[in-house]
Amino acid sequence: MHDTRPLKEKLSQARKVVITTHHKPDADALGSSLAMANYLRKKGHSVQVITPSEYPEFLHWMKGNDGVLVYANETKQQCQEFINEAEVIFALDFSVLSRINDLGEMVRAAVAYKVNVDHHLEPEDFADFQYWSTKAAATCELCYELILALGDESAIDADIADCLYAGIMTDTGGFRHPNTTKNVHEIVAQLIEKGANNAQVSKNIYDKNSHERLKFIGYALSEKLVVLPELKVAYFAISDADQKKFNTKTGDSEGLVNYALSIEGITLAVLFKEADGGVKLSLRSIGDFPANQMATQFFNGGGHKNAAGGKVDMSLEETIKLFLEAIKSYKNQLEEECEKV
Ligand code: 5GP
Ligand code: MN
């Protein structure tokens, strides 16, 4: 599908490589980054992974995590130097440079050969080499295929397999979403063959709840879930005060939106969360309902058809008001999807 010869040629000698991934990295973002970092190091390259923001502790087990540089005011200079000096930059699991915040313009300006491996819609044209497919369930799936295409299947060891497995497992919702194709199962079978400890990876990711987090989820479910059955919509609105009350940490609200989507008859579920003086949204939908289109049109965001996000500089109340207006224009699509299922 892709001609990988130009990349193979580029990597035919030891290179200074920077790998970066999207804001608030999830298991696919960090898994693909650390899988590629471990692979490229094995091939003799010197690799620095830079993330635009911190990420949850339940991802810290991945090999190479200790060397990740998290962009912040204090590390800005250091990140800039790595990017300036890089000969190759891998941009993984995002398609537009604005997804990596301030790092985006640094990457754009860099002289390095740029590689984009991703499965999101409408990639921005910033890369010299693109390995991209929206049919892939996860960027980790594409990274696996890319390593094979580069002729390096034997370089995939148990640590790399664990990282790749993590991203595929989470981006398919634990092998439950419609993106869980035959190819996905074949790849994860190969990863297990190469030593991925699938039971341990899923324990590391899904069973790392703190008592406080469970109390927060319980509170959100009993006090904060709003269901609008006639509109086929359910949502949570979580304020700063709610987050303070339960001392929530990065990742604590991860997956919360899925509870709203699990209600029978719901087509669209949203989590609104106060963050950085504005509101961060997570949208999830079923069937053909275009959550990404709604996120782009109303909430400065984007993403996949069934999983999208955005951010607005408004109060929580104003955001909900805007959302209730927004769903009016999607009324027919909301109803149609539910009838199909
Ligand atoms: P989450 O709800 O897990 O934060 O994000 C779900 C998906 O929506 C992500 O995989 C990403 O594709 C997309 N997404 C989330 N936030 C944003 C955003 O602010 N802008 C854009 N363009 N996409 C986003
Ligand atoms: Mn992904």
Walk me through the structure.
This protein is an alpha/beta fold and 341 residues long. It is built from 14 helices and twelve strands. The chain has a six-stranded parallel sheet, with helices on both faces. Strands 7-8-9-10-12-11 form a six-stranded mixed sheet. Helix 2 runs parallel beside helix 5, helix 5 runs antiparallel to helix 6 and helix 6 packs across helix 8. The chain is globular and about 60 Å long. It binds guanosine-5'-monophosphate and manganese (II) ion. Guanosine-5'-monophosphate binds next to strand 11 and strand 12.
Topology pattern, helix = H, strand = E: HEHEEHEHEEHHHHHEEHHEEHEEHH
Whole-number count of domains: 2
- Identify the CATH architecture of the largest domain: Alpha-Beta Complex
Residue ranges: pLDDT <50 for 5 or more in a row? none
Query: What is the CATH level 1 assignment of the largest domain?
Result: Alpha Beta
Give the CA-based shape: globular
Helix-and-strand structural type: alpha/beta
Distance between the amino and carboxyl termini: 33 Å
Question: Any chance you could write out the topology, listing elements then pairs?
Answer:
Blueprint: H1 5-10, E1 16-21, H2 27-42, E2 46-51, E3 69-70, H3 76-85, E4 88-92, H4 103-109, E5 113-118, E6 129-132, H5 139-149, H6 158-171, H7 182-193, H8 198-206, H9 211-224, E7 225-228, E8 233-238, H10 240-245, H11 256-261, E9 268-275, E10 278-285, H12 291-299, E11 302-303, E12 307-312, H13 316-328, H14 331-340
Parallel strand pairs: 1-2, 1-4, 2-3, 4-5, 5-6, 8-9
Antiparallel strand pairs: 7-8, 9-10, 10-12, 11-12
Helix pairs in contact: 2-5, 2-6, 5-6, 6-7, 6-8
Bound molecules: guanosine-5'-monophosphate and manganese (II) ion.
Manganese (II) ion (MN) binds next to loops.
